[in-house]
Every structure is written in C-alpha cells, then in structure tokens.
Write a structure and sequence with these properties.
Elements (H helix, E strand, L loop, with lengths): L8 H12 L2 E3 L11 E3 L1 H20 L4 E3 L8 H6 L2 H4 L3 E4 L6 E3 L4 E6 L5 E5 L2 E3 L2 H7 L3 E2 L20 E7 L12 E2 L5 E4 L7 E4 L5 H6 L1 H8 L5 E10 L14 E11 L4 H18 L7 E5 L11 E9 L2 E12 L1 H10 L5 E3 L4 E3 L2 E8 H12 E4 L4 E4 L10 E5 L6 H12 L5 E3 L5 H11 L3 E5 L1 H6 L1 E6 L5 E5 L3 H9 L2
Parallel strand pairs: 3-14, 24-25, 24-26
Antiparallel strand pairs: 1-2, 4-5, 4-11, 6-7, 6-10, 7-8, 8-9, 12-13, 14-15, 15-21, 16-17, 17-18, 18-21, 19-20, 22-23, 26-27, 27-28
Helix pairs in contact: 2-10
The chain binds adenosine-5'-triphosphate (ATP).
C-alpha cells in the first residue's frame, strides 16, 4: 500500500478533523477566533493518549525522573530572571546575509521625503547626515526613536506627513536582506487584583519550564533526587504569536511536554546526546514515518548565548520541514539566573565531592499539539483502491480502539452487539454504531482511525462467532464473541 500525496493535504486534514470531531475552531458560532482551537470527542482522546504516552515514557517508567504541575500564573520576577521580559519584548530582525540578530530599532533606518529630495538615515541613535540634510540643519544630530519619524512632516519642503521610511539595513553588514521583524514580546499580560489600576501585572506563562526551575530546591529536597535526574511537566503555555497558522502548528494557546534533566556539568555532552536520540526514537515509536523525521542541529550563530548545543526534531509537513521539539544543553543558565534574582540557594549537594554544585540542564521541550498534527498528517491515507480515507493511527494513539456493529438492526443483532460493546468498554475505548449501511459505518471509523471492527451477523446467531476486521488490511477473521476482549487485548497489546 502506498500513501498518496494530496494536492492540498492540509485542507483535507482540517476538514476531516472537523467532520469526525477531532478539532474545531474556537468560538466558531461567533465567527471563530484566530489561532485558538477546541478539541472534540476524538481529538481529546488522541491528545490524552499522546500525553499519557509521554508521561509514561519520560516520567513514570524512569527511576530518575519525577513529574510536577506548576501554576500558569507565576510571580512576575520569574520572567525577569528567565530573560523573557527583556528578550521576549522587542521585535527582532535577522540579517539573512551575516545572520546578525538585532532589535528593529537598531536597524539602519533610511527615511525619504516623498515630495522633495530630502533624506536621512538613523544609525545607532544618530542621524547620519548627508549633503541634503547638512544644507538645512548641520550635522551630528541625535535622533529620537526611528518610529517617531515615520510619516512625519518634511522640514525641507514642508510636506505634511511626507517623510516615509524607505528601507532598513543591517547595522553590522549593511545588507537589506532582512527577515521581517519578529515580535518578541510574546507574553500575554493580565492583572492580579480588583481593579486594573491598583493591580499587579502578571503574565500567562510562555513555557512550562520555569515552573520546574523555580521548584528545583523543593523537588530535590522532597524527592531526594540524586544527579542525574529529571523533572517533567505537561501544561498549557501562551504566546502572543505574531504570525500564526498552519492549523494547530502555531497557536496562541498550546500545550507543552517539557523535561528538564539535571546533570553534572562535565557530563552534559553525554546526556545531551542521549536525549536527542531518545526523543527522536519516541516519534518513530508513535508510528511516524522515519524518513519524514529529521534532526537539525543549530549552527553556532543560531544558539542562544547560554546554550552550548541545541537540536530540533523536525517533521516534513505539507508546508515544509518544521520544528516539533527542541533539545538544548542550557548549562547552568536557568538556575544561575534564579539564584541571582531570588537570592535563594538552588544548588545540589554532591556527597562525592562534599560540595554544593549548580547542575547543568538538558531540556527537551515538545509541543502536544504539534505532535498531534504530526501524527494526524502522517497517518492520513487516501486508499483509492477501496475508495476510502483512513487515518492509519497506531492502536496506542487511536482515540477509539474498536467499533462494534450489528450488521442489521433486527433479529436480535443489536442486543448481542451491545452486550459485546458493554464488555469491551470496561477494558478499552470502544464505540457502538448501528446507524446506516455497514459500509458507511466502516468508513466513518476508518476516518476516525479505529484499528478494529467487530460485526455481529447472522452467523453469530448460529455459532456465537463475530467478524473481526482489520482497518488497514481489511482482512476479516471470525472469533468467538466470548473471546472478543481477550483477542483485542492481545492485538492492541494494552
Ligand atoms: P518556533 O520557532 O516554531 O516558534 P520555538 O523555537 O519558539 O518554536 P520553543 O520555545 O523551543 O519553540 O518551544 C518548544 C516547543 O513548544 C516547540 O518545539 C513546539 O512544539 C511548541 N510550541 C512553541 N510555540 C508554539 C505555538 N505557538 N503553537 C504550538 N506549539 C508551540
């Protein structure tokens, strides 16, 4: 079986997700709200399965990882210490030529009057004079914010609002090949307190990780953790993204699955490598095709100043290779920052060296929604041979594991089917459907990604056997209805 490449695969997936109850646009009856999504009955199960698998694989199955759940609203000082207030604040521009990253206001701004030859540049807070300018005003003038010159009146010809921003150039290499400014003030603000005026400004967290760092000491003490050890957390994060889109790939409210794995600094390279491999394999174990996954190591100039190394795990979406997760060696940066800002001791007592040390940290930061989009995109299959659309989800992530169907709505078949369904749903996510033709009912479940179907037919009335249908191969075998739970448990390896 081959998977067909669609013309507009994302549109088809979005429509299937809506049709089958995976994902709806938020507040749809009011026209929707951009980049917010609601997960319907099937979506919430799929999402929960992803989170449960992560929690099992990363937290509970490991002797040296514990979990936590920190609050979304935290002390504003957390975000000062973490650097988010400072570095998530301004629009940043990347120079495509020399890779220099700078704040938009640091770019060389060229202004020009649209009705006379008057022009000037603002470079590093100073007005760069030229002949035209000097003739009127002399030289070496300090400029205000470049922003204030946009559409200002021309001091030369008196044109009203005729001074326009002509272009931006890189302050380092002068190139005009620049990325659009990216707003780094990504944090949503809200207020603690009765009235907005008297209230304290707080932020909706833009990542879950800081909740882990600020609880470092609490967890080391109470969990009696010994290096190397990890703390995992799943939770909502919020970013006031400027550019959103590609369905649930980039939204303003999303969920993260983050692990902070603390290590002795001298062992960080070893653990970094370990987690890059572990996490890459994790997506393959979720059934994602390995040739649609790749690792992308960040180049030196791309790295944040505190990160020693960083690798993204990327998936080949219909809109191009895009990040699913970042794994970074953040060294002691986060703990150091919180030690400095809070004045508290966030160290670890190393009994071997009889010394208090600040551990380094390897971070694995993955998105629940992006993982879900990956799984859905990868599983989407148009089976032209049988004129159906199938979500080839592995049983572990499939929202419904088995559907139970009476072939027809009479002769006692619905009663038998319901009894089987009642039995099955005690053990696994099952669904009962007696509406419409059997073919239509199968197709609905193929689109929902349900791996197995049990059908009660006339032979069931004679010998107590039912058919068990495999979603992908369409193979049907007969099993005793009394063995349904056992057979399915084996097939699903639950
Ligand atoms: P991008 O470059 O795509 O904006 P990022 O590098 O800013 O991502 P991180 O800060 O490393 O992302 O966040 C870790 C993970 O959280 C991402 O790999 C992604 O899976 C998820 N994530 C981040 N921002 C969003 C978003 N706006 N919508 C959905 N998931 C997100």
């Amino acid at each position: 079986m081959t998977r067909k490449q669609n013309n507009k695969p994302m549109d088809k997936l979005v429509s299937l997700c809506k049709r089958r109850g995976f994902i709806f646009q938020s507040s749809e009856i009011y026209g929707g709200i951009t980049s917010c999504w609601d997960y319907g009955p099937l979506g919430v199960e799929l999402k929960r399965n992803i989170k449960n698998i992560w929690w099992h694989d990363i937290v509970t199955s490991r002797a040296n990882v514990v979990g936590m759940d920190s609050s979304i609203l935290m002390h504003p000082k957390v975000w000062e210490a973490s650097g988010h207030v400072e570095y998530f604040h301004d629009p940043l521009i990347d120079c495509k030529n020399c890779k220099y990253r700078f704040r938009e206001d640091k770019a060389v701004h060229s202004f020009k009057c649209s009705s006379c030859p008057f022009n000037f540049k603002i470079n590093n807070g100073k007005i760069e004079v030229n002949d035209e300018f000097e003739k009127h005003f002399g030289g070496d003038l300090f400029a205000g914010e470049p922003e204030t010159y946009k559409n200002s009146d021309c001091p030369n010809c008196g044109g009203v609002g005729t001074v326009k921003l002509e272009r931006l150039n890189c302050p380092k290499c002068g190139s005009s090949e620049l990325s659009p400014p990216r707003q780094f003030n990504l944090m949503f603000k809200t207020h603690f307190g009765a009235s907005e005026e008297s209230a304290t400004e707080v932020y909706l967290r833009p990542e879950t990780a800081q909740g882990i760092f600020v609880n470092f000491d609490n967890i080391v003490t109470t969990a009696r953790a010994k290096l190397p050890f990890g703390i995992g957390q799943i939770g909502k994060a919020f970013r006031n993204e400027i550019v959103t889109g590609n369905f649930i790939f980039r939204s303003r409210e999303f969920e993260q699955m983050e692990l902070e794995f603390f290590v002795k600094s001298e062992e960080s390279a070893k653990w970094y490598k370990y987690w890059v491999n572990e996490r890459f394999d994790w997506y393959k174990r979720l059934g994602v095709r390995s040739d649609y996954l790749r690792l992308r190591q960040h180049a030196k100039e791309e790295l944040a100043h505190y990160a020693k190394s960083c690798t993204d795990i990327e998936y080949r979406f219909p809109f191009g290779w895009s990040e699913l997760e970042g794994i970074a060696d953040r060294q002691t940066f986060d703990l150091d920052q919180h030690i400095k800002a809070s004045g508290k001791k966030l160290s670890y007592f190393d009994s071997l060296s009889n010394n208090h040390i600040i551990p380094g940290v390897i971070e694995s930061s993955a998105g629940v929604d992006r993982t879900m989009l990956t799984i859905l995109t990868d599983a989407y299959w148009e089976d032209d041979e049988h004129d159906r659309v199938v979500l080839r989800l592995i049983p572990k992530v499939a929202p419904i594991k088995v559907v139970v169907l009476p072939l027809v709505n009479r002769d006692g078949m619905p009663e038998i089917a319901k009894a089987i369904f009642d039995d099955l749903r005690k053990h696994m996510a099952a669904f009962y459907d007696q509406g419409g033709s059997i073919g239509r009912r199968y197709r609905r479940q193929d689109e929902a990604g349900t791996p197995f179907g049990i059908t009660v037919d006339s032979q069931t009335l004679e010998d107590g056997t039912v058919t068990l249908r495999d979603r992908d191969s369409l193979e049907q075998i007969r099993i005793s209805k009394d063995n349904a739970v056992k057979v399915l448990q084996e097939k699903l390896a639950l």
